[in-house]
Each structure stands twice: as C-alpha cells, then as structure tokens.
Amino acid sequence: NEMKGVYSSPDQLHYRALKKALFRGHPIYAIDSGGDPRSIPTLTYDAFADFHRRYYHPSNAKIYVYGDEAELPTAERLALLESWLAEFGSSRGGGDEQIPWQPAEPEPYEVSEPYPVDAAAAAAPTQFVTLGWLFPPSPLEPSKKLAWGVLNDLLLGKPSAALQQPLLASKLGSAVVGGGYGASLQQAAFSVGLKGVAPGDEAKGRVSALILETLDSIAESGFEQSAVEASMNTIEFRLRAASASPMKGLSFMMGALSEWVYGRDPIEPLRFEEALASLKEDVARRGGAVFVELLRESVLENRHRCTLSLVPEPQLGGWLQAAEEQELSAVRERLSAGELKALEEETRALRAAQAARDDPADLAKLPTLSTSDLTASTKSIPIEVDEVAVAGGGRATLLTHELPTDGLVYLNVGFDLARLPIDDVPYVPLLCRMMSELGTDTLDETAFSRTVSAQTGSLGVSTMTSAKPRPGGAAGSPDEAVAMLMLSGRAVADKAPQLFDLAADMLASTQLDNAERAVAMLKQSLARAEAAVVSSGNSYASAALAARFSLCGSVDEMLGGVSQLHTLRGALEQAQGDWPALLARLERMRSALLSADGAVVNLSADEQSLATTAAHVPRLLGRLPSAAAPSDGGWAWSAGGVLVPSHEGLQVPTQVSYVAKALPIFQPGERICGSTSVVSRYLRTAYLWNTVRVQGGAYGCNLAFSRLDGRATFSSYRDPNLAATLEAYDGTGAYLRSNPLGPSELSKAIIGAVGELDAPQSVDARGVTSMVRHLLGVTEEERQIWRDEVLATTAADFVAFADRIDEVAARGSVAVVASESAIAEANVALPEAARLQAKAVL
Description:
The chain is an alpha+beta fold. A hairpin with a 5-residue loop joins strand 14 (700-705) and strand 15 (711-717).
C-alpha cells in the first residue's frame, strides 16, 4: 500500500523511471528499492527470510557512536559493542558485496514510460521530458563534489539561475523537474527537464533542444562573477549552518554513510574545510571557468545521456486494477474448497496474532527509561520584550533571544494578516512568492537574487498561522486566530546591516508588476499542488475538516488546501487575461499589510552579536510605511460546520486512500489537561498503529490533538481501506475502556509524551517558537503546569478521554481523498447518512 501510493504520484514515478533509465540493466539501481506494487505479492516467505539471514547481520553493519569521550570512553564503547554482538556467529554471506559501477553508454538514447491520469480530469494531460547524464564510473574527488554543489546552484538554485530561468521563460512546461546534481548513489548524475509539457514528440524535441542549447550557451558565455560569489556563499553558509543542527550527531552519521557504504573514507565528507579552501583558491585564480570546465567534462562531453519522456495514459489505472483483480480471481479458481478453508483459517490466525497484545516478558527485554529519569522542569527559551517607537506615534514589538548561534543572526518580521479582507487571503501565497523572488525598484530579479545569496544565508516571505488558546490553558474560541505575513532571514553577524537592508527592500520595494513571472509562478504552484493532493492527501483531507471548525482552520485551508487549487487556477486565468486587475489586488494587499505600527520583529543571536544587531531595527522599521493603508479587513467566521457533520469525498486518481475524521472535543473556555497529550500519543502508537496500519494495511495513521483549540483529528496515509478505517476510528473509545494500562505501559506513554515536549530544535527554531508563544499568550507558568500534568497522568485519564473521543464517532465530520471507485465502494458499505459526497479535485 505504501508503494501503491508512491506509484500513484506522477512525480514519484518520474524519479523512479529516470533512475531506471540512467542505470538500465543495473542489478541494483535499475530496481525500485521500495518494490513495485505489481511484483511485491510474488515475494515468498522463504525469500524474505533468506534475505534477512543474509544481510541483517553484524558482518554487514556499519556501527557509529557519537558522544562525549569523557562520558563514555572508547574502551567502554567497544566493551558494550562486544557484549551486544557476542551472540552472533560468523558472517552468513552478503557482507562483502559491492555495488557494481554502471558502464558508460557509448551514445545518447531515449526511454518512454507511461503514468496514470484521470480520464475525467478537467485539465488536458501533459508529459514530463527530462535529460539525464550519468557520470563516469569512478568516485568524485571531495573538491569536485563541492564544486558540483556550487555549479548546481548556479544552474538551478533559484528562479533566476542560468538554466532554470530560460526553462521557465520558455513556457514549454509548468515546472522544472529532474533535481539537478545528485550524488546520493555510488555514481553521481545530473538531470533536468520540465513537466506540464504538451504531449507528442514535437514538444519533447523542443524541450530537449532548449536544454542542450542553453547548456552550450552557458559554457560559451561562462558565469558572471557576481553569480559565482552568490552561489559560493550559499553553499558555504549551508555547510557552516549544519553546526546549528539540533541533531548534529545524526547529521554527521548521514554524512559519513554517504561514503562509508561504498567502502570509502567515512570522515572525509565531514571535513569540508580543506575541499572548500581548495575550491576557493581555484575560483580566485580562474573564476567561473572552474564551473564551465566541470559542466563540459561531466555533461556536455558526456555521451551517457538519456532523454526520458513520461507520457500520460488515461487507461493505465484501470488496466492495473483489472490485472490485479484478474490475477486474484485466477488464484482463487485454482484453490480447492479445502485450500480456501485453510486460507480463511490462516487469515483469522494472522488477524488474531496482529491484534494480540505483546507478551510482557518480551517487552521486559527491551531497555527503557523510567519516569524518574525525566526532568520535571520545563526548558525555557530566553526572551526580552521591548517596544520600538515608529513614525506617526505608532509602536512595533521587538523580541530578542540570546542563544548560541555560532556567530549567525536570525531575523523574523511579522505583519497581521487580519488587515486584509478575507477574500484576499487565498492570494497571500502568490504575494509571498512574488515578494521573495522578484526584483526591486533598483535591482532586477537576477541582481537582487544574487545580492541576497551573496550577503545572507537565506531571505524570504511566508505565512504563520495558529489557533489561539485562552488564558490558563483553556481551549480557544474558534473565531480567534493569529495569522501573520512573516519575513525570515539569516546571515553572519558582520553582514547584519546588509540583511536588514535587503529585508526592507524585499518588503517595501519589490517590483510586483511582472505578469510573465506571475504566470510562471502560478503554473509552478498549481503543478506542485496538483501533485501534492495525490501524494499527501491526508494533509488535504485534514485541512478540509479544520476549515469547518475554526477561523484558523479556514484560513489554513485557503492558504494550502483544495480551495487553494481553485484560487491558483482562477489567478492564472486572470494573470493571462486581465493582469492589471490582479496586479491592483496584489498592490492593495501589500499596502494593507505593511506597516511599522504593529509590526513584530524577532531576533535571535549570541551575546556578542545581539545588541549590535538590534540597533539596526529602527532603520528597518523606518523603511516601512508608518501606518497601513486603509482596509476593510476583519474576518467573520460561522460555526455551522461544528453543528452539522459533513462527509466529503475528494476524488483524485490514486490507488490508495487518505481518510480523516475530526471534531472539537473541548468547548471554548474549557480547560485542557496535559494528560490529553499522553493519551492521544498512546492511541496513535498503539491502537491506531495496530488497527489501521498493522491489521488494516495503511502505510501511516495519526490522531492529532490540538491543545490550543481542543480539536481531535484522525487521519490515515496510503490506506487500502476507507469504511473499515472509519470504523476503526469510531472504536477508539471502546478500546480505551476495555484495555486498561498497567504501570509499565503508562510509564512508556508518559515518557513518549515528554519526548515530544522536549524534541530537539535548531537555534533559529527555538527563537521562532518563543515568538509564537509570545503571540499566543502562552506563559512559562502554563507550560510548567502542562508538564506537571503530563508527568502525573494516570490510567483513569485514559478512560476519561474515551468519553471525549466518542464525540468524534458520534458527531465528527469526514473527509477523504480517494479514487472515484474507492469512494463508490465505500458508499455501498456506509450508512446512508454517512455516505460521502464525491467532488472531483483535478
């Protein structure tokens, strides 16, 4: 079911087809490591067990330890490993196998593969056209790998990049695909193309010719020095910012494995300074010629080039379904009555084994923490709150966080989205993207993009939304929300002045009057959204339900749910037919939002940098209008969705379903106890995991409970069922009542919930988290009370939660993302009042 979901996504099929085409005939890389859903049923138990015996053995393992030598000396580490591995015998084979290199192809070649589309879809079917080059069969030197990272950024790193810009401007497709340079496999590759291309060989030829001609032109003209400096800075910043990772040990492990699994030096990828210094020296001597030489050597003069076309086939989904049903029928016909009866008995035994609780004696063998190991106190994030006077008598809020940022500065500037009329909210994603990517009054898009890349680590505009709780940890009112337009950026401390100046330029000086780029952005965004609703249907189903229950949910759905697809289509039509009207709307929206009065500035930096960085805030605010333009903002919201349940079937071409059911289970003003987080987490890792995933076959399942507004949302991911999953959701309360927790299970449930409270965060994420808590009015005292209640959770709290969750079964609304046939089949099994109202999405 996982792989049926993968094979329902054209983007995933494209990635897999491209790898298969570049490594055609390869014994490993030409095969899908996740498994082809058509082949998976042929796997026998003997083959499965033999594979495990052959490869899941310490002789085939890579053992990695990260930590303080003083805490666990090397001798003790080795002694622990010896005690763990002593019970294993010698190698069972497979440990010394090597992945073969793919020989170079002598001449370019073409491959075509089909992908399923909905025959009833409103939009005309389109194809993917991609060119891929497989690099020669030998390892790349560290400096060359680093150089390719820079070259990839020069070619495809941003919309104004040397290869991406002409591809987008060509209007031959809706979005760039291929991924560019990739070195995750033993043999590196470079791939680029377009999706949303008109069907047929003529269009395919035009895309192929454009890519080759553009690469030739780049090689002839070279790269401008400003572009090289920008991309060099981007890659270096990315390397150095890794030190701020909250899971540094895991990051190091993944870096080491990138070479280690191929028998090469595992430490080399972690020591980038020497390779970086070598590349800088080479660039200082030869400039952009370093990257032109690399482009010629690995791509333009490389004959191992594949042209892949992924072509739409409206009948493919039906053919696959029919073939599966035909095969099942054939198997059934070959079985005798006795064999059928034996199969039924085996299936019942399997179901019983899946439903059985684990033997306590087996569970006791697993090493666990105890609640006494947990810290009782919350971990606070330092914050200072100040007001900054702005022109016209207004005030802005300045939040500062002294954090160990390793000489980096993180900036956020927020503006209240509620200044907009609610009808403008769906257009905010377009406005954010245009402000992030277009040029300014003084610099065109390419120059501004390069300046941002050269002076900062990143800079862009997005949104931040959240339900708002009431004081004391009570559920918030459904018509209250925090929603902001948020600029975010980062830079090294000595470039903080440039960061603030560029932030002001992006906010106040972006030149929005660019119809051609707006059309390209809308096409890209629409293509991404249409792909996402097929591959991440659980998010869209959950968003559709959230919109029924609160203002925040409604805003979130407008910004990123199914209705956003409708907005994108309408905006694209308007941009092509009446650009002045759309431009006027975007200009009006920006004027309504941007105001120094009421702005929130959030800064995170270390002690040495914080004060000097904060001194730039008044200059930034001074570049903004002192007051927002008049607006008829103010959002109204109706609670009708809570009162009348809905049952919605969002129809897309997919082999699996995404099933969601939700309802607020606490009333506004009703206090929510910390024990709810323990129970809800336990349910998704125990009952839902066993019922929906293990027994039901879904690839994922979840129960999301919001402590802010008291909403409970069930959801499944890549699910072969629909009605049966809803039945499982409705049985949650009964499960809690009939399966009381013992002390050991309760302790593990509490530890898991505390683990979520204490999840590691990057330094910049800690600063943002503190800002959000401030905006929501969440106090440190409330956080400590919540933690105390989590630690004090009892078995009785689980039974009490059952009464709450039963409300979802009785009055909850349902939204599913599924195929037309899956919705129709479910409606046969569902009661009439619960039948799904089907609605085509694509």
